[in-house]
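Reply to dn_fold:

You asked what the input looked like. This is it:
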Amino acid sequence: MITSQDISFFLHLSASQSLAATARKLNVTPPSVSQRLQLLERKLGVKLVERSARSITLTASGEMLAEKGRALMLDLSTLQDDISANKSSLAGKVKVLAPLGFGTHYIAPLLARFKKVNPLITVDLELSDHPQWSDKQSPDIMIYIGHLRDSSLKCITLAKNNRLLLASPEYLKSAPAINCPADLVRHQCIALRENNEDVTMWKFQGKTDSENVSVRIKPEFSSNVGQVIKGWAVDGLGIIQRSEWDVVDEISEGKLIRLLPDYTLPSADIVALVSTERNKRPNKINKLIDFFKENLSL
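and this is what came back:
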């Protein structure tokens, strides 16, 4: 019979590119990983992994073990939390995936505060320009900003977040007047490539439905990094759309000016994505989500 330790080992392996990568994660030698895998395969009487010189691929049985094993480990964690519900302290690992900029400025400091209040918690924070949920990378919580396409994940709004149209005083000195969205076709625009969105179609909502308009821009600059396009805008290179959380300082310091305030852009609320309903999640994850909601003041 396989044990929870066997399942935990195989989940580490299934999320790795090779046996050597698994060994590095577990801080053991590659031969010991190979031996443990062989023992697990003998226990089950099936082949779990196809091995090549530099990579591994799960067999159909391996995929089944990874999928069902992941659910079992989550159930075990939830069971432990339920049994320990009367304890005042939280314990265990929390794994969070977040966008690079927002994660650096907001999520990392909040996780540090959460850890101080709950010293038995261990934190694993991964930051990425393009955070994506996958079977091989399934965090406890994924922080997401922007338009969410169809997803089987549960979505929890942590904070409201507006997108703003902005340019620097330097750019506006010599640029044509901008009185309505249609004027953007005569301006230098800067696009941020994110979330597989149509980044050159800028949508505006006026005070009435008749004033709603979309403008196809032709960006002079584009990047997949928010800090880069903000820097270009501050340097006077063009007009950007940016989340309010990222430009509060620049607006207050007069480095960027909001344009077309009578129009609103599609909101980009900050949400937590999780795989299960609240009553099926470990208590520590629910407490962390509640902590984010209480402390994310933008």
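The mean pLDDT is 88.
Hope that clears it up.
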